[in-house]
Amino acid sequence: MKKILLVEDDPNLGLLLQDYLQLKGKFDVVLCTDGEEGLKAFNKHSFDLCILDVMMPKKDGFTLGKEIRKVNEQVPIIFATAKAMMEDKASAYDLGGDDYITKPFRIEELLLRINALLKRVSKDNAAVELQQTNFEIGKYTFDYTTQLIHFNGQQQKLSTKEAELLQLLCLKKNSVLTREEALLSIWHDDNYFNGRSMDVFLSKLRKYLKEDPKVEILNVHGKGYKLLVN
């Protein structure tokens, strides 16, 4: 469940947004009523997204956003304000805001913006992960760029799909790589024949990694596979 920091000084609107996002968006929403309380909450918890009202007592939303950016440069921030002036929009983006919504707004629109931001961040994180090319797998080392597994001075050359599959398993090491995710990422289609083809590649990878008893590629029934490294 994604965790959202909502900082809104209007208690009625704040509770309405909190209830709606928790019910419809299935988010865990922490509600604060001023900027100082919001900063304390941000420093105490880990959030996936922040919604900051601009006009607030004690500490306005722009100041809060600036202080959040000093701590975390990546967390998405949506600024909400009754002002629609171009200067405010420019300030929101200059301070590292990711989106800007003007009051009054439809709650459904806010939910759409939240989901779009979280989806974009998820894709960005996945792209960064896929840039990793060197992995340690127990006593093995794997270089995705050269498609080579190294072990005790020997090396095993992998095919392109074997290397792509092993990279996904490494990125999910000790966690489940779903069958659908692997098929769509590598074969771009999760049909039966591609599934059988992937099973063959998994058998080959198990053979390549069999010399280290602490390394296993497990079948997780009904879900997918797990590269287990003890």
From TrEMBL:
Domain OmpR/PhoB-type: 132-229
DNA-binding interval(s): 132-229
Pfam families: Response_reg, Trans_reg_C
Domain Response regulatory stretches: 3-118
Any one GO CC term of the record: cytosol
Gene Ontology MF terms: phosphorelay response regulator activity; transcription cis-regulatory region binding
InterPro entries (alphabetical): CheY-like_superfamily, OmpR/PhoB-type_DNA-bd, Sig_transdc_resp-reg_C-effctor, Sig_transdc_resp-reg_receiver, WalR-like, WH-like_DNA-bd_sf
Keyword tags: DNA-binding, Phosphoprotein, Two-component regulatory system
One of the GO biological process terms: regulation of DNA-templated transcription
Residue(s) carrying 4-aspartylphosphate: D53
Listed PANTHER family: PHOSPHATE REGULON TRANSCRIPTIONAL REGULATORY PROTEIN PHOB, REGULATOR OF RPOS
Name used for this protein in its record: DNA-binding response regulator, OmpR family, contains REC and winged-helix (WHTH) domain
